[in-house]
Design a protein that fits this description.
Elements: H1 2-20, E1 25-27, H2 30-46, H3 48-54, H4 56-61, H5 66-81, E2 85-87, H6 90-108
Antiparallel strand pairs: 1-2
Helix pairs in contact: 1-2, 1-6, 2-5, 5-6
Length: 118
């Protein structure tokens, strides 16, 4: 149940990003946002660790700022893979990934932690 709620909140965060950046990021429907949130989660779980490892020297050289570029590329990749989720370019993808991360984190604070259950 918690996983489904997290997925739902990530889709809501994605809709909020599309609302704030309407000329750069477009989402056709809430269903498209749900699929995009799922694909973003899979891309971040499968490709991000490998990319972070491969770009570790560049990340160290830029004191961690290169991670924003990696996140933007993965956001852009998800936008190019899906129909109904469009990202207008590289820099909108970077800013969209930053906003998506912020909104997703804020919305995740509202999820119950599950502590105290027996």
């Amino acid at each position: 149940m918690r996983l489904f709620l997290h997925w739902l909140l990530n889709a809501t965060a994605l809709l909020a990003v599309a609302y704030l950046m309407p000329s750069s990021i477009r989402i056709a429907s809430f269903g498209a946002a749900m699929i995009a949130a799922l694909v973003l989660g899979l891309v971040n779980a499968l490709l991000r660790p490998l990319l972070l490892l491969l770009t570790l020297p560049m990340t160290l050289l830029t004191l961690g700022l290169f991670i924003f570029i990696v996140n933007g590329l993965l956001f852009w990749l998800a936008g190019s893979l899906l129909q109904g989720f469009e990202v207008g370019g590289f820099w909108p993808a970077v800013f969209g990934a930053i906003l998506y991360s912020i909104f997703s984190s804020i919305l995740s604070w509202f999820l119950p932690t599950g502590k105290g259950r027996k």
